[in-house]
Amino acid sequence: MQSGDIVEDRFVIEQLAGHGGMGAVFRARDRASQGPVAMKVLRGRAESDVARFLRETRILREIDDPRIVRYVAHGALPSGEPYLAMEWLEGEDLAVRLTRERPSYEESIDLGIAVAEALGVLHDRGIVHRDLKPSNIFLVGGRFDGVKLLDFGLARAESSTRKTATGTLLGTVSYMAPEQARGASDLDARADVFALGCVLFELLTGAPPFAGIQAMSVLTKILFEPAPRLAERRRTVPPELDELLARMLAKLPDDRPKNGHAAAEALLDFRSRSARRGDPTLLAAPPSEPRLSHCELQPAAVLLVGAPPPEVDQVDDAPLEAIAAAYGAQIDRLLDLSATVLLSGATVATDLAAQAARCALAMSRHARGRRIGLSMGRSASGQLRVEPAFDRTVRLLADDAAPAPAAESALVVIDEPMLGLLDARFEVRRTGGVLVLHGERDIAEPRPLLGQPSPCFGRERELRSMSSLFDDCVGQSGAQVVLVTAPPGVGKTRLGSEFLRNLRARGEDVDVWTARAAPPSCRASCSVIASLRRSAGAAVEARPGEAVDERAPGEEGGGGFLDLVVARCAERPVVLLLDDLQWADAASLRALDRALVRLEDRPLFLLALGRPEVHEAFPKLWDGRPLQEIRLRELPRRPAEQLIQHALGARATPEVIERISRIARGNAFFLEELIRAAGAPAGEGRPEAVIATIHARSFALDDDARRILRAASVFGETFWAGGVAALLGHLGGRSSGVQDRIDALVEQDIVERRPGARFPGETEVAFRHALVHEAALAMLTDEDRALGRRLAADWMEARAGEAGAAL
């Protein structure tokens, strides 16, 4: 339609006011009243669109209330398209208003009461709005006390039993009640109360309680996460209001106010009681001196088991639930029969990645014909805070380049950050541009570095010592134990695989059995012995999720294993390589100890690799046995430089070699990941695996130290003690608290003081490495990052007089 067109000899079109997916809204003049009207015209011809349009028309025609947009007329254009004429409203909707400003505390409560009363009018007639959100709340004249409800296309009578198609979601995801998100067809007024609670929460805090980039991420939160408490997001909140919002956002409909009138009554009662006692918090503005919270993001792995093939309408997820429980994971089933799995915790990032990969591989055997996506993200305070990772996982499952899943198992695809955290024991192949996880080996071949094998620089002395001990074991001395200890990333596993490679190169006729201990959350008794028997080709099979009983009748701890190793040692030397010893189960270690006693004069060589905490876990491990410990140190600088030169070739300039060596500081894992980043195409050189690992290791620091690092990261690689204090307030009630903590971080070689200072009287400090800064920045929640940037800019402006300090 164009300006000047006349509809049914009554409405004169003036201009297009807006348009959307279903149609357009025109401003027109009503000849009957000589006033303006809004004419909504449906452009689509889909049956569902027409039904929604006619339903809105019927509801508005039946209701005459000042809080609901007024019906004027309806009909059809000459072209057959239906139209609905409504009163013309001057002002703006709440969503537009919120882009500029938030209402005051009092305005928020008043608006909530007005909307609740308008919903009550609908609920009295048995109508559920089903799509309440800020854009459907109109502020007449831009006033918060001039509220009208809009858009009744999804509204439906409570008694309606018409089913919604499977997988179809009607309504805006962030404001959906859990029962609506599950696709329930019997929604009642309490679904609108939940949506109103979401709107009120957003008015009072600046963000809805459930938000995310992907709709599926938001749905996951709505269905399975407790709603955040209002008091957690805004400190000046009366307990009564905090409790009322918690009731409105309750997961179970029975726990919410029963309808709009009940919600309005509760809000009115709160406002009345607050006014009588002169409660200052009712009119309080947001805190005048906001500070960064104590909330901290931690590494998390997100696993998404895709929906089954279309021909499958029912699946048995009990095996998946059992596997998730065994790995300490949280699993939740979604509408389309897919499932989300979350693994998180303050642990080394590489450990978490390995645990998640094993969980995915275990689930793949019970998710036939489906895809499983696995990504690394972050979680906060035990809650799902992994929208970017979840979005990546959804994209992994939807990637057309991925091969089709096999009929007998699922296809496991992973993202690049996950690949960087998995060591070479996991077999990953790039197929059609997609990373596919195929399985895990008990012991790894060295992972290629930039596509090429890499020499084992700097470990010649340790390898000579191990070879000499092996020769003694075979030649004359009998059973021998070599224990290699080092922190994560120093190179224990690589040393073990290099030792085995050297044995093969020498042509030694030996049996090699390998095993890797699993973390306590997912190990079973005698699990190490079971792995060794599998490696020896004599495993006792068990159904997934069941522990293998390696004990002979009447003999605890692996009698069958002892007989096996005795028999093999009678034929040739046996090398047992056990990795991640710190996680080994006690029953397996007792079985190995008995083997060492029984075979004290036989060629049994046990090479155990573990972290230093193995001595705390097993303080008397193999006491009295022939044990030699090698404490593996960080890689010396010269071998590190040799590896950089070997891998990067001409790209290994003196500056690159110096920078990588300085940041890696002898950590072999860091060194290789930094080399991969340096060898990556432009723009792809951020070593996510290193950042995640530094992040996880920060948990060795106390809470205050980590909070200082988070606040400091907002300023960049250089920061000031006074600026950090401005973001945090004084620690422990002492003005010197921040400076004391920074001094401790200097002593720990995490940050360093800078000579001079940009701001007179301020101590200037810098992160020793850019990656430490990035890891600290990654710990900040989105809310703290935004607040921190604003507070930091204000602090810098106040001291430097620089308008709009650049961050």
TrEMBL record:
GO terms for molecular function: ATP binding; protein serine/threonine kinase activity. InterPro entries: AAA_16, Kinase-like_dom_sf, P-loop_NTPase, Prot_kinase_dom, Ser/Thr_kinase_AS. Residues 11-268 form the Protein kinase domain. Keywords: ATP-binding, Kinase, Nucleotide-binding, Transferase. It comes from the Bacteria. Pfam families: AAA_16, Pkinase. This is Protein kinase domain-containing protein. The lineage of its organism: Bacteria, Pseudomonadati, Myxococcota, Polyangia, Polyangiales.
